[in-house]
What we know:
Blueprint: H1 2-26, E1 35-37, E2 43-69, E3 75-100, E4 108-110, E5 114-117, E6 120-123, H2 124-129, H3 131-139
Antiparallel strand pairs: 1-4, 2-3, 5-6
Amino acid sequence: MTFMKSLLIINIIFISQTIEDQLSENVKLNVADSWCCKIEPQVETISQTRQITYYVLRHERHKCGYDGCGFLNLGRCTKWCSETWTEAIDGVETYLVNKTLPCPKNELQCCPNHIFIMGHCLSFAEVYDNQNLLMELSELNIVMPGPIGI
């Protein structure tokens, strides 16, 4: 029985993730919960910079003394030494970022299952639940301005 419960839980998690993925695909064009864009909003590419530090491996040879050389080490030859070190270098990096622009006001519309009333997009459930209030507001000429001047 616990195996079946585990399968059920895994199935529920999978289904909820699938629904969440589908919702996120559908919500891409939403301006708000009740407003949708008729077109796909434009994407603007912006150049940005950031400070970075990177490390470079350096190598150098230099004179570090003399050694005996030649016949019976009677001569004097330069001795060369080698050094290696890591050096930190600060720099500025430029990169591109894509930014989705807001939907133009003339392209806004009510999302599916919403209706435009008194400058607002209201869900059918909101309208049904608040019919009396909406009628009273309309009769008293009390209209709250919507987010756009339509």
